[in-house]
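Input (structure):
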């Protein structure tokens, strides 16, 4: 049997699978199995998850999306809590969420789909459960926004009239004049109804739901110190040198503006490994802190947030209340 077909049959029967399991099925090592999987992905006969189990994604055939829920226990505690909230509520309004929940939703790309909803002249972001049908999505969003549809008008009842009552007694000219007058009255009444309904129609038109592809985070690039030509990084390295902090790993998110690092910090208990988010911003918000906090939790490391600027008032208030364990330093 063709191995591509063998892999498809295996995943259809077993559900979302890791490359190691696929390799065992076709009696190939994980590298060769990965090549087969890549071919099937290119042909769009398979899909791959953002969720990772033991460091590897899951491969599944279209239609098996619901089975990804079987692996939700592999999410970190913060993302698992947000996952359960979205699954229960079906639709979440981003502006009503805590910063840490907003960041977490962006990590749940297998389960959370962002929606752009136009409200008047503004756009708002909502998040929907990935299995929710479009029709139900529209109903829930409108309920959240307190938008009600006008009740449909009752159809006129047809009452049978005896035949003898339909016999005209007027002359043809009189009948014609009456018919024209009645038609005018019907047209005038219809115009009045349209005028009354127009505001409701316009209001419905202003609330339009648009689905968009999930926004992708900036590509993270692992670099060596010798490859860097970045003034902001030079400032960081000087700060770390003064404080006897060793850099283990550097990820450039945005040159001259944002860097992720793994560092070793000296302490009374020996050298400790930290996840560090460094940003060259004049003012850092609660969303900046939340992103650093979640990333550190995913790596199961304490967090250090370094910046050249200040915190917003709200971020400062939330630092010790919502982001316990995150250290903020201005350098």
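Output (sequence):
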């Amino acid at each position: 049997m063709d191995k591509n077909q063998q892999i498809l049959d295996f995943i259809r029967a077993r559900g979302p699978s890791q490359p190691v399991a696929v390799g065992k099925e076709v009696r190939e090592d994980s590298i060769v199995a990965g090549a087969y999987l890549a071919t099937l992905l290119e042909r769009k006969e398979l899909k791959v998850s953002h969720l990772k189990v033991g460091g590897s994604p899951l491969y599944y055939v279209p239609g098996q999306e619901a089975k990804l829920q079987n692996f939700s226990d592999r999410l970190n505690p913060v993302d698992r809590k947000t996952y359960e909230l979205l699954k229960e509520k079906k639709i979440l309004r981003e502006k009503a969420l805590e910063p840490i929940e907003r960041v977490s939703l962006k990590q749940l790309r297998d389960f959370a789909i962002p929606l752009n909803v136009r409200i008047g002249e503004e756009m708002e972001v909502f998040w929907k459960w990935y299995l929710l049908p479009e029709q139900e999505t529209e109903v829930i969003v409108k309920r959240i926004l307190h938008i009600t549809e006008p009740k449909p008008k009752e159809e006129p009842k047809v009452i049978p009239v005896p035949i003898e009552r339909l016999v005209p007694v007027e002359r043809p000219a009189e009948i014609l004049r009456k018919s024209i007058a009645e038609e005018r009255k019907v047209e005038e009444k219809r115009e009045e109804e349209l005028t009354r309904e127009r505001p409701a129609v316009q209001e419905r038109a202003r609330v339009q739901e648009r689905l968009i592809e999930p926004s992708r985070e900036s590509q993270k690039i692992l670099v060596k110190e010798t490859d860097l030509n970045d003034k902001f990084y030079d400032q960081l390295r000087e700060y770390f040198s003064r404080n006897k902090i060793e850099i283990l790993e550097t990820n450039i998110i945005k040159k001259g503006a944002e860097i992720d690092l793994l560092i070793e910090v000296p302490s009374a208990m020996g050298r400790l490994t930290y996840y560090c988010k460094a940003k060259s911003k004049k003012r850092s918000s609660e969303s900046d802190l939340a992103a650093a906090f979640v990333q550190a939790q995913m790596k199961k490391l304490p967090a250090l947030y370094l910046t050249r600027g200040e915190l917003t008032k709200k971020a400062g208030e939330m630092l010790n209340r919502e982001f316990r364990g995150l250290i903020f330093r201005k350098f």
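Notes: Residues 172-206 form the longest helix (35 residues). Residues 221-330 form a domain with the Trna Endonuclease; Chain: A, domain 1 fold (CATH 3.40.1350).
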